[in-house]
Structure formats: C-alpha cells, structure tokens
Amino acid sequence: MVAFAKSSSAYAPVTPVIDDQLHILTAQQKQQIMNENEKLAHKPYHQQLWFISTNKTPSDFDPVNSPLDLETLGESKFSLLSLEQATVDFVEDFTKQYTNLNENSQDPGEEQAAWHVADYVTIILVAPHFKYKVMPLISDDAQDHISDVRDYIMTHQLNFKDYSQANVMDTVNFVSSFLNTKATNKKDNGGITEGNLWTIGIGLVILFSIIHYIRHRHDSKGPSHVDPEMDDASARYDNGWLDGVYFGENSGDDSFKN
Questions:
Q1: CA angle, corner 15, sides to 10 and 19, nearest 5?
Q2: Which terminus of the chain has a smaller tally of CB atoms within 10 A, N or C?
Q3: pLDDT in tens, 151-198
Q4: Cα Rg of the chain, angstroms
Q5: pTM of structure
Q6: Are strands 121-126 and 18-20 parallel, antiparallel or unpaired?
C-alpha cells in the first residue's frame, strides 16, 4: 500500500505518506501508522508521521557530492539532532517527490507550502544502503522540543542500524509517542538542558554547604570533633617532651636557663 500526499490547496496540510518499497511492514502495522496520524491531526499543534523504505543509495539522490551518505558524521559526535542537520536535503527531496510541491516555485503560495512541510512532517526512513539504516527525520517544529539532554537520551534509546521489522516498529512506536506526548504539547519546552543540570548541581553544593555550616556553627567540638581541653593537653605534652629532649641533650649545660 502506498499513500501519496496530495493537497487541494497550496496552504493545506499534505496527506501522510506510507511508501514501504522494501515490504518491511505488515498491513496491520501500516494501519497503525495511519491511526497515529489520525491522533496527531487532532492535536493542538499539527504533526504528521511518514514511513518510507527504499533500496536507493546516496548516489541516487546526489551522484556528484552527496551529503546524504552521512559518512562524515562520526560515531562519537552522532546524535538524533546531528542526524537531522545532515539530512536536510533528504527531506527537501522527499517533499518534492511525494507532494509535487516545489520549494523553488515561482508561485509564492506553493513555495511557502513546500517549506512548511518540513515544519510538521516527521519521516521514518529505512534505507539499508546508508550508513545509518533507520533514520527518524524529525520535523523542524518537533526538534524544538528536544533539548541537548533529551537529545542524548533519545539517541541512546534508538537503534539506527538494525532495519529488522522489530526494530523498525520500535522506532515507529518511540517516535509516535514523542510526537503525541512532547512535540504536540504546548507546555513542553524541550526538557532539561545541560545548563540546567549545572545550575542544579551548583545549587545543591551551595545548599549542602549552608546546611553543614548551620549544623556545626554552635558545635564546641568543631568540625574535627576534638575536645579543646584534650587539644591543650596534647600541646602541653608535646612541649614537655621537646623540653625533656632538649634538657637531656644539654645535661650539665645551664646556659639555656639564662
């Protein structure tokens, strides 16, 4: 089953796309994606979920110098958001292919509608010939709900290289949940950030320092819990011991008494 996006108006939202060229999903699973789009259509902030599987290679999109092979995206710096930055051209190509909307159109309405697709369309792309074979291409508006900490967490919850049916559906379910609970929630601000973590950490250190000071400021034993009298006795003992050594070494010499 292939559902292509059509629009009666340049400004109207396009129809969600399901183009499973590799026959990864069952009819029931495709219906599940359609049902998810029905839910999203009734959310305060409009979002869509597309599914595309293809045998195409990076050179099929740009035979000269493709930015889509993602080979330059190192494993150490890889994240969900870095994937989005590396696949911007991909989203543009799919928008043109499946909607017939041209971002370079002379018609201002069509041009605006084409650019707007990337704002609300998230694509689950399965492409076995790419370095990352399962790519959730998150819509621009949904990316606003992903802080650096949430990006780190989401990246480690997804498997980008296993294109088995089980993992593909895990990805679909994960992204659907994110779109339904976070990306379409006007109260969600993207979650905690790294800056927030530092602020919380510094605040806790200051708080514990204040508590420690309050608990021990009236403690006569002091932070080391040493009895002051015992401390003086120790000092007298040390002085006496040193005097004894001095006296012993200078036996018969009374010059020190002068």
A1: 130
A2: C
A3: 999 999 999 999 999 999 999 999 999 999 887 777 755 556 555 555
A4: 34
A5: 0.70
A6: unpaired
